[in-house]
């Protein structure tokens, strides 16, 4: 779902509905524009406006929570990578091959999630990267602990590789997208609101600019929702800082 065209379409629809009403209202009989009618319309639009604001606020909050969750998953993977490297370093020279595989995996994971080409979609299900982690698990399983300390280090290392694998597949599940019928319903509510603007707004540049800015605000809110639902694409992306730092730490 491309957020830029969606926001542009929404702005056009909302602004257009207000402009159409501003021209159509000139042909309405005078009693349709009485103060009593204006009062009824204002109260009705206040109800719809409140409902629309609540729903849009809820959608933004939900999308932001999903975005933050993905960022936290990246941070957790990064922390687990550093911890795993330290555990294998403490195990001894027998685990050095595993540390090399861990560096390869982290570099591959970084490339999969954050491609150098910003137009390229992340590859969440790269089997080659998963195979590196599986090979690392096999290396850890094949270690021969000589004492209780090494047995504990081996067990902890296996737990971390399992956690890293689970986190990767969780990232591959993506985010929960807002149902399209719900977005269409919210858009319908805003069309009604903007159409009401045109009923009593004077046809002058100031009114037109004010309505245009208001439609841009609504379109921007919808864009924020769609952007937050694509944490690895678009303008608002999850930061790769933690994973990059983890790769630097385990490469020292």
Q: Which percent band covers the strand fraction?
A: under 5%
* Low-confidence sequence ranges: none
Cα-atom radius of gyration: 27 Å
Largest beta sheet, briefly? none
By DSSP (H or I, 4+ residues per run), the number of helices equals 8
Oligomeric state, counting identical vs distinct chains: single chain
Order of helices and strands: HHHHHHHH
Give the strand tally.
0
The average pLDDT value, as a whole number, equals 88
Class from helix and strand fractions: mainly alpha
Q: Determine the N-to-C terminus distance.
A: 41 Å
* Shape field: rod-shaped
Helix content: over 70%
Write the layout of secondary structure elements.
Elements: H1 3-24, H2 35-91, H3 96-113, H4 127-141, H5 148-172, H6 180-200, H7 205-228, H8 241-250
Helix pairs in contact: 1-6, 1-7, 2-3, 2-5, 2-6, 2-7, 2-8, 3-4, 3-8, 4-5
């Amino acid at each position: 779902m491309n957020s830029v065209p969606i926001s542009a379409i929404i702005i056009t629809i909302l602004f257009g509905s207000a402009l159409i009403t501003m021209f159509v209202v000139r042909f309405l009989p005078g009693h349709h524009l009485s103060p009593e009618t204006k009062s009824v319309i204002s109260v009705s639009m206040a109800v719809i406006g409140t409902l629309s604001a609540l729903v849009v606020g809820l959608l933004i909050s939900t999308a932001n929570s999903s975005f933050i969750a993905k960022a936290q998953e990246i941070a957790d993977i990064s922390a687990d990578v550093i911890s795993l490297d330290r555990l294998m370093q403490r195990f001894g020279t027998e685990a050095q091959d595993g540390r090399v595989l861990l560096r390869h995996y982290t570099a591959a994971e970084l490339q999969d999630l954050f491609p150098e080409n910003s137009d390229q979609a992340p590859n969440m299900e790269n089997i080659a990267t998963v195979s590196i982690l599986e090979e690392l698990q096999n290396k850890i399983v094949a270690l021969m602990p000589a004492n209780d300390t090494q047995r504990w280090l081996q067990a902890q290392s296996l737990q971390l590789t399992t956690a890293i694998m689970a986190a990767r597949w969780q990232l591959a599940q993506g985010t929960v997208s807002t149902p399209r019928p719900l977005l269409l319903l919210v858009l319908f509510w805003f069309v009604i609101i903007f159409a009401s603007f045109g009923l009593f707004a004077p046809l002058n540049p100031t009114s037109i600019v004010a309505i245009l800015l208001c439609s841009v605000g609504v379109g921007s809110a919808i864009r924020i929702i769609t952007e937050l639902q694509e944490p690895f694409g678009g303008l608002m992306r999850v930061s790769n800082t933690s994973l990059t730092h983890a790769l630097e730490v385990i490469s020292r």
